[in-house]
Design a protein that fits this description.
- The chain has about 350 residues and is an all-alpha fold.
- Helix content is about 75%, strand content about 0%.
- Helix 3 crosses helix 12 and helix 4 packs antiparallel against helix 7.
- It is globular, with a radius of gyration of 21 Å.
Length: about 350
């Protein structure tokens, strides 16, 4: 490899390196925010103890790291990475930088599933399972409608079907809010719809981790085919890419990521729209380079917002509110500084 090629490869890796370092710094800062701050020295002592290289830290430190703050920080990273990667995949697939992970109604379906679970007084695990199933059911319905309706542009039909099904599921949510108990169920429904990681624990990580692996793996394996899909279906077929199969796999993987994120944290907007924009601004429109940067950026963005949500006041602010407050000006700035068109 020549010196120029090596320098170019190093420059391309800089966003990944910077994102990784920034994520670690944010994680250390997140441990220090809360009723019982955990400093870097205490984190090192705990890590050394777990590796068998030191003495056990105070029980309260281990409990905060392992059972309270640690799972929540990991959940924020995972949910942010899932939403941002799904957003990057959808934007590449639909060749539209304004597309977000809920374009096919997955957020509305997951929300309806969770609302049904709360309305039926299911336990937390049951509400999360109902939310996950609802998200998958919504996209399956959209894809079924698009499969039945022929003679039109497939991507256009998918988008229109997603809007219609999402609106229908939102109407179902409104009906259940009217019928819910105004003293117990309605506050729980409202709080869940605003998004929060207050209840994130080890059980949520057990659900999130496998979904991340299963959802991210096909997207990374198909990264070059996804880039070819941005040229258009006819061009992709001419280059030997089975457009229909690739589109189906990408939608399934992105839906799995989004449905899992929503089932764990509720409705959290802007992450899947703003962060992929920033990734494309840094490394270009190629999904192969933008997806890893988007994943790191999504994890860092949501971790920072979650830390702000639980540290800015005595009452925890819902994540959906803060992501809108932070995401709106950032998106407007990105929109004003980015180049015209997809590239």
């Amino acid at each position: 490899m020549s010196w120029g090629a090596g320098r170019l490869a190093l420059v391309r890796r800089m966003p990944l390196v910077a994102g990784t370092v920034g994520l670690l710094v944010l994680a250390a800062g997140a441990f220090a925010v809360g009723a019982y701050p955990v400093g870097v020295s205490e984190l090192w002592a705990w890590a050394a103890w777990r590796l068998g290289l030191g003495e056990a830290p105070p029980p309260v430190v281990a409990a905060v790291i392992e059972n309270i703050r640690g799972p929540r920080i990991l959940a924020a990273m995972g949910v942010g990475a899932a939403l941002a990667t799904a957003g990057a995949a959808y934007q590449s697939l639909f060749r539209n930088p304004l597309v977000s992970p809920d374009i096919l109604g997955v957020s509305s379906g997951a929300a309806l599933g969770a609302v049904i679970g709360i309305f039926l007084s299911l336990p937390v695990a049951g509400v999360e399972a109902a939310s996950f199933v609802g998200g998958l059911a919504a996209v399956a319905t959209v894809y079924g409608v698009a499969h039945v309706v022929r003679g039109h542009e497939p991507l256009l039909v998918l988008v229109l079907a997603g809007i219609v099904i999402g609106t229908l599921f939102s109407a179902g949510i409104s009906i259940l809010k009217v019928l819910a108990d105004p003293y117990n169920q309605l506050p729980a429904i409202t709080f869940w719809l605003l998004g929060s990681l207050a209840g994130a624990g080890r059980k949520e990580l057990v659900l999130l981790a496998p979904a991340l692996v299963v959802g991210l793996t096909p997207l990374l394996l198909l990264r070059w085919r996804i880039d070819i899909m941005t040229l258009g279906e006819e061009e992709a077929r001419a280059l030997g890419v089975e457009a229909g199969r690739v589109r189906f796999i990408v939608i399934v993987a992105a839906t799995l990521l989004t449905a899992t994120a929503v089932s764990v944290a509720g409705i959290i907007g802007w992450v899947g729209l703003v962060v992929p924009h920033l990734a494309r601004l840094l490394v270009g429109p190629a999904f192969a380079r933008a997806a890893p940067v988007a994943a790191l950026g999504g994890g860092a963005f949501l971790l920072a917002v979650d830390t702000l949500a639980r540290g800015v006041s005595m009452v925890e602010i819902p994540l959906g509110v803060l992501t809108a407050v932070v995401g709106t000006p950032v998106f407007l700035w990105l929109l004003s500084t980015s180049r015209k068109g997809w590239g």
